[in-house]
Amino acid sequence: MADEIPNIETVRREIDRVDTALLDLIAQRLELSAQVRKAKGGMRVWRPSREDSHVRQLASEAEATQSSLVSTIWAELMSASLAAQGPMRLHVALEGDALSNWSLVRDRFGAALDVRTYPTTSAALAACYAEDEGVAVLPSPAPPPGGMINWWTALGPGGAMEGLHILAGLPRTGHRDWPRAVAVADVVLSPSGSDQTLICVKDDGPAPEGAILRAESGAFRLFSLDGFHNIDPTPKRKVIGCLPRPIG
After folding, report:
1. Quick check: bond before 171 cis, omega within 30?
2. Does pLDDT of 109 surpass 70?
3. How many degrees, rounded to 5, is the angle at CA 123 between CA 143 and CA 164?
């Protein structure tokens, strides 16, 4: 027997019921988010490793839903939650394709956060460094043989902004081995469960065994090493970030 054709009005009523339930759950989540800041007791608002770990888990459980859709939905939810928790602000460098950069920011951070844009990476990085809850969104370090994207050297050994770290890659989903842009902030590095550690090496400092060369600028080289690694800093070598791998 042929499948019975559903009644469109019945289906629409069911959609309305689900939509109402979703909105109720979202309201509950935002109410809980408003309480998180108090519970954190002075901790940083943005915890990128936990966020990416959570989205990765949700995407793996939602087998019938594309990872990109899961990421986009949670970007908007997290954006609203973070905006409710405190004064987090994004400082976005619009060098290169500004429209593409802006699209990456919206896909990763949603629309609720305060955003300021800058014509150069140095200006965005300086603004981020001056704020407790600032996050800079910058073009990824250039692959060898290098180029003009050298802001990451300021995070390396002896750099002027050693307290900052590379914490997230944009886009969050897909199959790219290296992100198009990265997010930088003064946040302690922690694992997300699927990471690559970023190590900046100066002069003739030793490269970690098994590491991949990602960028070069003058006396500095940037390597990625699979997994999360705690490597003691030296005058010639320092961990400057941890990138959660893209969610496929």
Report:
1. yes
2. yes
3. 65
